[in-house]
Amino acid sequence: MLAVIVSIEAVMVVWTWRTWADPIVDFGREVYVPWRLFEGDHLYRDVAYFNGPLSPYINLGVFRLLGPSVNSILMANYVCHILIATAICVLVNLLTSLRCGLLCVTVYQALFGFAQYESVANFNYLAPYSHELTHGMLLSLLCLLSMYRTLASRRGSWGLATGALLGLVFLTKPEPFLALAAACGTGLATTTICRPSQLKRVVQLCLAMLVGATIVIATAAILLRSNLSWHDAWQGMLGGWTHVFDKRITDLKFYRRGAGWDAPTARLMTIAFWLAIQLLALRFAWRESFRQKASEKKTVDLCLLILTVVLFYVVTVTFRTSIPLMAILVYSTLPVWVLCVIGGTLRQMRKPFPRGGLARRSIILACMVFALLMLAKIPLCGRISGYGFALAMPATLTVVSAAWWVAQQVAIRNGSVQRFCAWCIFFFLSFNVFYFVQMARLISARDAMVMVNNTPLFRACHERAVIINSTLAEIQARLKEEDTLAVWPEGALLNFLAQRRNSTPYIVLMPPEVLMYSEDVILDSYQRQPPDYVLLINRDTSEYGVGQFGHGYAQNLWAWLWQEYRPVTMPDQERSESDKFGMLLLKWDGSP
Description:
By secondary structure, this protein is mostly helical. It is built from 27 helices and six strands. Strand 1 and strand 2 (455-460) form a beta hairpin.
């Protein structure tokens, strides 16, 4: 099994080599921010940032250790990826078996670690769109392991360590913290309910965890206070928490569609459809594992399969849902399956506990709660693409572990475990055909290299790579070293690659950021510190439902830009059509 894991890792690295990051979208912020901290700027004061402070400072440490480069971040992220895989194996081994742990690692490698399922390439663990999710995932897994030790040993020192890890997750994003806090609470509550005599000790452990979390959070606030006011320090430390309930942002088309709230009826029908398919597949695999003769009639199973195919087309036509979208939503049933597994675990809780079994079952339940709540951002649109590379990963591995447990039940009933596992693998691969095909198509489309000083960095489609390379060459030839550059509406990676900083804190002007920081505040900052050059990128923002930059939103910024700046001739970009990817460099004309 270990040889299989190593082989899959090697194949995925070679197959996806240099395709992990998008040179324009999201990932640039993840590199630009620690670079500015490396150069002496301060987070939340000189660089606007809407997440917690942990990840930027981790990446700052990477830059100080390995030097400020994209390769340094990629190397650090690969180490994080390996640590996550190791933590998965250790945790699953503690709760089930080593073989199941290795199986979960294999699924993690094949589906999540190097994922390339969307045109934007930042939804993987090598070049994530937000390091808060990947760092938060690693810390969450370590916290669950520490929680297991806390409940098993009932030592306050383990409680302090668990609380410290929980506090570190608080400094990333709300999604992993909420799921992890609920998981830890579940573990403590389960222990108390099953062993009321341990109430006093559980309360002491809970207090130790609170102390550990408080120490970490308070330390972070004090460190931020050295360069900020107390108000700004706490505001920055809260990060994304200040925007969780902002209806202006959560009601954007992008987030509603990602959660499935744009068409809840169609999403529920899709969930019902895929649930029926998966139940049929599970039933078939179960029956096959007990079939004595291969020649037995399979008329019923064949009829059910035909009925399922007919249902597929009925649902697709009725709700005008494309077949690719239906295929993507094969994982939309994850909440249902996790709830089923939680129900089965609660039923097992009624049985007597062997020595040390209570801590084990408490953490099993805690892990399932964590997996379920990680799906809260995509409740009706579960998928392993997009945000799902992190949000759906724990739930997927929970279902894989549950399937392993079902295989053990087959063995107990004298069925054929090999046959059951073979059919499960067959159906698993069948359900993921679209993802595998999509990944192969996208990787093959990235057939050109983005180059910096003759050094290859990323693979991208030919048109984008040519434009980016010529733009970087133009910037290097035209701009002085001290000149400042703003990239609108996003593309901070070009700032980093060109080694030209933005003169203002606001490096991303996408709809959510404009709403978060206020267009008036952003415009005032640009008017007080106008950059020497602005690189305008024709970035499609229709996914947010607000129209193009400067027309559907940020009109005041757009008007100021064309009043104060003049275009610089860039033939390749000027010939780009308005609906295609293109760039235009503008220079400040010095007007008051």
